[in-house]
Amino acid sequence: MLVREKSREFPLGDSPSLGPQSTVNPFHEPKNKSVLQLLKTLLLLPLFLLRVVCLVTLMALGYVFIRLALLGVSDPLFKPFNRFRRASLWTVRAGARAVLFTMGYYYIPVKGRPAHRSQAPIIVCNHISFVDPIFVFYRHLPVIVSAKENVEMPIVGVFLKALQVKTKSIFPITLNFTARSK
User: Fold this and answer.
1) Among 139, 47, 148, 58, CA closest to 93
2) What ranges do the domains of the chain cover?
3) Contacts with 70 (C-beta within 8 Å, 6 or more apart), sequence order
4) Coil, strand, or helix at residue 145?
């Protein structure tokens, strides 16, 4: 019995007190909603629908402008754009800011100034949400690194080609499962 009691003992002495157990489940919604919740839902539903329509419209316009920028380009991933094609992406850049505005990012504070391209030609950032790449695209118009498989996607691939993405295959070894030896 002494062995069992010692194994349950907290290694640094007495175990910390966690307080009373919470009976609130954050993932459970009450079935009966209050009048205030229904009123908020009814008032904000048009705003939600307006934002969805704006996002779809902005994405469609961005797709059209990117297709126009890529018109006549034989291999956008390996040949640099001329000044006219690069300047035509500014409309897409403005569209990216409009997408951020539509999603509720009316003002995004930025501390400091980025270094000049001659001093720091590479931006290294890890995105933690789907909003971060949109902001980096709007702010810096970068050339990004992505998986080769992303460029082959129907809609996203067009946007990545316009950014002249540098690709690396996720699966560098292709396996042939049809030719098996017996």
Assistant:
1) 139
2) 36-108+124-168
3) 76, 85, 158, 161, 162
4) strand
